[in-house]
Design brief:
By secondary structure, the protein is of the alpha/beta class. It has two domains: 239 residues, Type I PLP-dependent aspartate aminotransferase-like (Major domain) (Aspartate Aminotransferase, domain 2); 117 residues, Aspartate Aminotransferase, domain 1 (Alpha-Beta Complex), CATH 3.90.1150.10. 39% of the residues lie in helices and 11% in strands. The protein is built from 13 helices and nine strands. The strands form two sheets. A seven-stranded mixed beta sheet has the order 1-7-6-5-4-2-3, with helices on both faces. The chain has a two-stranded antiparallel sheet with strand order 8-9. Strand 4, helix 7 and strand 5 form a beta-alpha-beta unit. Helix 3 runs parallel beside helix 9 and helix 10 runs parallel beside helix 13. The radius of gyration is 21 Å and the shape is globular. The relative contact order is 0.18. It binds pyridoxal-5'-phosphate. Pyridoxal-5'-phosphate binds next to helix 4 and helix 5.
């Protein structure tokens, strides 16, 4: 089998081609309106996203990172507070905790599902714990039932990091039918171009069902303004541009279809990778659907090196999300360390393969044919 050209991690070119006219029209409406910041397009998108997620309040902002920071500011997180974060996630999750002067407390994740371990959250709680940030990593929900129970028992907040999980919904138990981002106190979304719902630039949103929190988040995202030029608190300048909102409004109508395409690609990967005993393909949690932001396989470290070299020589993109536990990052050197053996292990073993809405069966079969060339 031959691939005609290289295979990328994401293929936004071909995705965009299919909706180009709609996108162009939406962008031009904004240009003609000259309402570039805030206004109807942004409000419309927030309303549609709220309906999609089933959540009462959607506050637009500039990025997923800003969403996390604004959420934490709204909850009053600062010096002296501890915030529990997975040791295995994108840097931004823990970065904002440190930026606000609070202390990130690193908790281990499940080695098969990559989501935060409730039993390790229990061990990490102290009288200073103010919040837990479960990350719905790669597109599967953290165990929100268990996390909610812990949060209730200790009177701490839950901030869901949904940057990778839009399209993931709980399918059984206490939160059946609920989208990620509609379970904790606050949900934080990213519309970075390569995310499941991607803008043509940066973008983010905060979700909550608590109207007081919604109001505070809205103020913080806009320089702490209550009334225009009257500032109730210190805030930030974090906006979703109207052009991005207009693009997102169009793409949101395709989101379920995009998620289906990712799931289809994942099933095909499962099928073609099944014969390779040395590869662990991503395990599905029983209580949610997997929105497959990433398709992440695992293998022994030495084999991963061989696979990476082989994929490189065949122009097939791949990535290691994430190569280093957060607590081992230089920027986190001053924070207390905790033992997170699963994280240490999976950082050596994970490998993300191309995953996007345009991936064809042929491409996936071609990738599998490259794996056949690996000598164990
Ligand atoms: C992408 C991402 C973020 C940050 O989102 P930006 O929009 O890039 O700021 C935060 N957390 C996780 C888990 C992410 O994947």
């Amino acid at each position: 089998m031959k691939a005609t050209s290289s295979i990328a991690m994401v293929d936004l070119q071909n995705q965009t081609k299919k909706i180009r006219d709609e996108i162009n029209a939406a962008i031009h409406e904004v240009i003609d309106s000259t309402q570039f910041i805030g206004g109807e397009k942004v409000n419309q998108f927030c309303e549609t996203l709220g309906d999609y997620l089933g959540v009462n309040h959607v506050i637009p902002c500039n990025s997923g990172t800003d969403a996390l920071q604004i959420a934490m500011m709204a909850l009053g997180i600062g010096p002296g507070d501890e915030v529990i974060t997975p040791d295995f996630t994108y840097f931004a999750t823990a970065e904002v905790i440190g930026i606000l002067g609070a202390t990130p407390v690193f908790v281990d994740v499940d080695k098969d599902y990559f989501t935060i371990l409730p039993e390790d959250i229990e061990r990490a709680i102290t009288p200073n714990t103010k919040a837990i940030v479960p990350v719905h990593l790669f597109g599967q929900a953290a165990n929100m039932e268990a996390i909610n129970e812990i949060a209730d028992a200790h009177n701490i907040y839950i901030i869901e990091d949904c940057a990778q999980s839009i399209g993931c919904t709980v399918t059984e138990g206490e939160f059946i039918g609920k989208a990620t981002g509609n379970i904790g106190d606050i949900g934080c979304f990213s519309f970075f171009p390569s995310k499941n719902l991607g803008a043509f630039g940066d973008g983010g949103a905060i979700t909550t069902n608590n109207s007081k929190l919604a109001k505070v988040c809205r103020q913080i995202a806009n320089h702490g303004q209550g009334k225009r030029y009257y500032h109730d608190r210190l805030g930030v300048n974090s906006r979703l541009d109207a052009i991005q909102a207009a693009i997102l409004q169009v793409k949101l109508t395709y989101l379920d279809n995009y998620v289906n395409q990712r799931q289809r690609a994942a099933l095909k990967y499962d099928e073609v990778l099944a014969p390779f005993e040395w590869i662990t393909s991503p395990k599905r949690l029983p209580y949610c659907n997997h929105s497959f932001h990433q398709y992440v396989i695992r293998m022994q470290y030495d084999l991963r090196k061989k696979v990476i070299a082989m994929l490189n020589s065949h122009n097939v993109a791949h990535n290691v999300y994430y190569p280093l536990p957060l607590q081992k990052q230089d920027a986190m050197a001053s924070y207390p360390k905790r033992s997170c053996p699963n994280t240490a292990k999976i950082c050596q073993e994970v490998l993300a393969l191309p995953m996007h809405t345009e991936l064809t069966d042929d491409q996936i079969e071609y990738i599998a044919s490259i794996f056949e060339k690996i000598t164990l």
